[in-house]
Amino acid sequence: MVKISFVSCYPPQRGQLSEYAYSLISELEKSPSVSKIDLITEALGEASTEKLSKSTTAYRLWKPDSPLSLLSIPLKILKLKPDIVHFNVHMAVFGRSRIANFVGLSLPFICKLMGFKTVVTLHNMVDKIDVEKTGYKNSFINRLSAFLVTKLIAASSAVTLTMKSHTEFFKERYRCKNAVTIPHGTWTSTLHTPIVQKTDSILYIGHSGPYKDIDLLLNSFKILEEKKRGLKLIMAGSSHPNYPQYLEKYKGKSQENLIFTGYVPENQLQALFEKANAVILPYRTCTGTSGVVHLASSYGTPIIATDLPEFRELAKEGCGLLISQHCSTALAQRIEQVIDDPKLALELKERNLNFAHSRSWDKVATNFCNLYSELMDGALG
Question: What is the mean pLDDT of residues 317-328?
Fold first, then answer.
């Protein structure tokens, strides 16, 4: 049986991969091959320890944008003496500070030097992001620091990525033999038989930042409003933690049938998705695979997304996702296409449910447990 130290953001914090960590740990706890999980996560205020379950303890230690607090992570790992150290990260998971992210993302390499077997789940790479569309400068120093820290991550015992194309790129670019694809999970407890039911809303949900084109979505909705389609646009979610006021500038825009809900509790998600004709993903650039895609597929809700490589790959893998050109007219036409064609809507729902079945969280956790076993047996790392 394996003892894991799991480094990640975690609820009640929102975003920054918290939901991913919660879902994965919930399944890992059920595995007979996992004896203990020590979660090392962001502090809510002062450092604290919390027993989450019989096998999981949370150590709330570090703070975003605080390089010194991040150094408490390897010190705690030394005391815990795990079999595996698993980091759940993306390139800006430790805040907006370049220094904090460099320090935090260097920790897998430091833990490897300390003699621990390390797994990194890397949700994105700077190489695959249009950096300026995320609000960061694409400067030489940013590109250099991103390359160096990603090279350090590649030295881990194993690196998992959520998309096959990203895995192949990572292997070649960073000369990493121990990189594998483990897809993002879906929430199978929500799965149900798809029923085409005409509703009057389209849904935008998730954290908002400059990498999402809210203006594109609102302009598309304005076109539909002018046609008197009688639709409502539900804007669910909040600003991304790294862009805390981003959504506020849109809330003041008065537009008929435009509703901002703020954060939606988990127990209200099913009703929200089932009422929607489609989920709209108006991205300028992807910062990794989309958690919203995997959530929407769990409910069988059709998805319409702008034309980006990550979305094309998900559609090719079976997701019920329509691609739209990045212009308001094309997006409005795609929305009308789903609303006006019940046969297409049913096909997309069925594809999404099948897609969700293929990568449920229990299957994802099994993949990780198999990876841990390979590391413990010396087959990797």
Answer: 94
pLDDT for 332 beyond 60: yes
Residues 144 and 25 in one domain: yes
Whether 216 and 267 map to the same domain: the answer is yes
The backbone torsions φ and ψ at residue 59, rounded to the nearest 5 degrees and listed phi first, read -110, 105
Please check whether residue 300 is in contact with residue 320, taking contact to mean a CB–CB distance below 8 angstroms.
yes
Do 156 and 208 lie in one domain? The reply is no
* DSSP assignment letter at 54: S
Express each pLDDT in 104-137 by its tens digit.
Answer: 999 999 999 999 999 999 999 988 887 777 777 7
| Domain span at 108 | 2-185+360-377
Quick one: 171 and 203 in the same domain? Answer: no
- Cα separation, 52 vs 54, in Å, equals 7
- Other Cβ atoms closer than 10 A to 192: 11
Q: Is the pTM of this model over 0.85?
A: yes
SS (H, E, C) 127-149: HHCCHHHHCCCCCHHHHHHHHHH
How far, in Å, CA of 72 to CA of 298, rounded? Answer: 37
Does residue 310 share a domain with residue 225? yes
15 and 153 belong to one structural domain: yes
Contacts of 83 (CB under 8 A, 6+ apart): 2, 3, 4, 117, 372, 376
Domain count, the chain: 2
**199-224 tens-digit pLDDT:** 689 999 988 989 999 999 999 999 99
Q: Comparing 111 with 187, which gets the higher pLDDT?
A: 111
Q: What is the mean pLDDT of residues 187-191?
A: 60
The sign one gets for the Cα dihedral 139, 143, 148, 153 is positive
CATH assignment of the domain containing 301: 3.40.50.2000
Q: In this structure, what token pair is assigned to residue 71?
A: 């150094």
